[in-house]
Design brief:
Helix content: 55-70%
Number of strands: 6
Number of helices: 17
Strand order of the largest sheet: 1-2-3-6
Length: 368
C-alpha cells in the first residue's frame, strides 16, 4: 500500500510539473551568461506627487510567469484572461519550461502566492540584488522558502528576462502603460484622493508608489520598512475602467500601510481577542485572511475606506461598500465603523489615526 501511495505521489508531481528548487542548476548574478545584459528599468509617472505611479518590468515579468505556470498549480493573479495576457503568453510560450518558471511554480505550490510575490520582489533593486536600505520582512522570507531561495529566484528572473528578451516586450508596451498610469492619475486628482487619505490619517503619504500591474488585477497593500524607520508604501493594483472600484481599491491598499504597523504593536490584545476569529474563520480563510491579525487589519481598513469613500464618492458608495463587506463575512464591520466615526468626530482629542488606533483595539476587547 505504501509503495502504491509513493508511486501515485511521484506521478502527480510529474504531471503537475512540480520541481524542487534544489533540482534547478545554480547560477549567480555575475554568471558569464549575463555578459552585456542591461536590464530595462521601471517606467515612472507623476513623480512630483505624494501618490506616484510606475510599471515595473520585474513585477510584470513575474506576473506573466505566474499566468504561464497556471497549468501546474491553481493560483492566478487574474480573474479572466485579456487580449494583453493572451498575447504575452503566446509571445513567450517557448519559454514555459524555463528554469525561472519551473522554480516559480514549485514555490507557488508551497505557498508563494498573493502579496508574497510583490513583497519579495520589492526587497530587491532593479539590478536583482538585495537592497541594503530596508529591514528584511521575515514573514515574506518564510513564504519565499528563505532568503537564499529568494535570491536564487531573482537570478532566474534575470535569466528569464534576458533569455526571452522580455525587456523588448516591455518597451513595446510603454505607450499602453503610460495610458494606464495617466488614467489612474486622472482619477486620483479628480476626486482629491490624496488629500482625503492624508486628512483622515493625519499624516502625509510618504514614499508611496503605486505599481500598476497590467498582468494582474489582484491588488495588494505592500509596504517595506526602511532602516531609517519610515515606511515605503508600494501597493500593486490594476487600473480599472470603473473609477469607483479603482478609487476604493487604491484607498484600501494605501490604508494598509497606515493600519498594519499599528495593529502589529498590539500583540497582547490580538492574543486576548483571537477567539473572535473562530465564528468567521471559514469566510476569512476563503479570502486568504488566515490569521486574526490579518482579519483585524481588514476590518479596520475596510471601515476607514468606507468612511473616506463617503467623502470622495458619496453616501450611496459608502453604503454599497459596507454592504459588500457584510456579505463577505466581515462580522464586526459595523462596530469598527462606529468606532472610526468617533475618531472623525473627535479630532481635537485624536489628531492622527495613530493616536486613536488603540481605542479600536479596545473595542475588540469589548466585543469579546
Amino acid at each position: 500500500m505504501k509503495r502504491l501511495v509513493v508511486f501515485m505521489v511521484v506521478i502527480i508531481l510529474l504531471v503537475t510539473g512540480c520541481t524542487s528548487p534544489s533540482s534547478i542548476p545554480d547560477i549567480k548574478l555575475d554568471d558569464s551568461r549575463f555578459d552585456g545584459y542591461e536590464p530595462e528599468k521601471s517606467l515612472y509617472y507623476n513623480l512630483d506627487s505624494g501618490i506616484r505611479f510606475r510599471v515595473s518590468p520585474m513585477v510584470e515579468a513575474t506576473y506573466l510567469a505566474v499566468e504561464m505556470a497556471k497549468n501546474s498549480n491553481d493560483f492566478t493573479n487574474y480573474q479572466s484572461n485579456t487580449p494583453y495576457i493572451e498575447a504575452g503568453k503566446e509571445r513567450f510560450k517557448d519559454f514555459e519550461d524555463h528554469e525561472f518558471i519551473r522554480m516559480l511554480s514549485s514555490m507557488m505550490i508551497r505557498g508563494y502566492t498573493y502579496d508574497a510575490i510583490p513583497s519579495s520582489i520589492y526587497h530587491f533593486n532593479e539590478n536583482f540584488t538585495l537592497r541594503d536600505d530596508i529591514e528584511i520582512n521575515e514573514f515574506t522570507m518564510k513564504r519565499s522558502s528563505g532568503q537564499d531561495n529568494l535570491e536564487k529566484l531573482m537570478v532566474y528572473l534575470k535569466a528569464f528576462r534576458m533569455d526571452s528578451d522580455f525587456d523588448s516586450y516591455f518597451r513595446e508596451n510603454k505607450e499602453q502603460y503610460i495610458k494606464m498610469m495617466d488614467k489612474g492619475h486622472y482619477m486620483v486628482n479628480s476626486y482629491n484622493v490624496e488629500e482625503t487619505i492624508e486628512d483622515f490619517y493625519g499624516k502625509p503619504i510618504q514614499n508611496s508608489t503605486i505599481t500598476v500591474t497590467p498582468h494582474a488585477k489582484n491588488a495588494y497593500g505592500v509596504s517595506i520598512d526602511l532602516k531609517t524607520g519610515s515606511l515605503e508604501v508600494l501597493p500593486t493594483l490594476g487600473v480599472y475602467d470603473d473609477y469607483e472600484i479603482f478609487i476604493n481599491v487604491l484607498v484600501h491598499e494605501i490604508s494598509h500601510t497606515y493600519v498594519n504597523p499599528l495593529t502589529a504593536q498590539q500583540g497582547e490584545i490580538l492574543d486576548e481577542t483571537e477567539v473572535l476569529y473562530e465564528p468567521i474563520k471559514k469566510e476569512m480563510s476563503n479570502q486568504a485572511y488566515t490569521t486574526w491579525e490579518t482579519t483585524v487589519n481588514e476590518h479596520i481598513v475596510r471601515a476607514n475606506t468606507a468612511i473616506m469613500i463617503k467623502d470622495i464618492l458619496g453616501e450611496t458608495a459608502y453604503k454599497n461598500s459596507l454592504s459588500k463587506d457584510r456579505e463577505r463575512g466581515f462580522k464586526y464591520i459595523d462596530e469598527v465603523v462606529e468606532s472610526a466615526s468617533y475618531y472623525i468626530e473627535n479630532r481635537d482629542e485624536y489628531p492622527t489615526f495613530e493616536d486613536y488606533h488603540l481605542e479600536i483595539m479596545k473595542m475588540f476587547l469589548n466585543l469579546k
